[in-house]
Amino acid sequence: MSKDGNPFPNEAPCNATAMRKASRRLTQMYDDALEGCGLRSTQFAILVELYLWLKEAPTVAELAAKLVMDRSALGHNLRPLAREGLVALQEGTEDRRRRHVGLTMRGRAKVREALRLWEKAQARFNEVFGESRAAKLRATLLEIAFDERLGTLKG
Question: pLDDT tens-digit profile of 81-112?
Fold first, then answer.
C-alpha cells in the first residue's frame, strides 16, 4: 500500500481513469445480464429514463441533459431503439424544431422484461460491494454527474 492509502500503488492517481475502469467493469456485468432481452446497459438507461417521463415526452435536449449525455451521442443511441419500435420521435406541437422522444407500448414492455434481468446485476453488485456502500457510491456518482462545475474547465 502506498503512503496515500492507495491499495494499488502502481495505478495513476487520475480520477477520470479510475472512474472509466470501474464504469467498464460494471458495464460488462450489466450488459451480460441484459443480453437475454437484446439490450445494452446504455439502451436500458435511456428506456428507463423515458419510462419515468410517461406523462410528457421530453425533448431530445431534456433527455440528453437528464442522462448527462451529448445530444449527438443520444441521437446515435436512439436510432436502433426507434428502429426496434421501442421509442418514437415526434415533432413538437409548438416548435417543430424541438423533437420529443416517447416510449412506445413495446418500449414499456421491454423495460419490464429487462428490469428482471437488470435486478440480477444490481443484486450481484450489492452482494459484492455491500448495499450500504453501493447506496453511498450511487449518491456520490450522481453528485459528480450533476455538478455543473465539473463539466468544463472554461469559465
Answer: 999 999 999 876 666 678 899 999 999 999 99
**In angstroms, how far apart are the furthest CA atoms of the chain?**
60
CB 33 within 8 A of CB 120: yes
Phi, psi of 14 (to 5 degrees): -100, 120
Q: What is the 3-state secondary structure (H, E, C) of 79-105?
A: HHHHHCCCEEEEECCCCCCCEEEEECH
To which residue does cell 443484486 refer? Answer: 123
Domain ranges within the chain, ordered by starting residue: 15-146
Give this prediction's pTM: 0.85
Enter the C-alpha cell of residue 64. 440528453
Fold assignment, 15-146: Arc Repressor Mutant, subunit A (1.10.10)
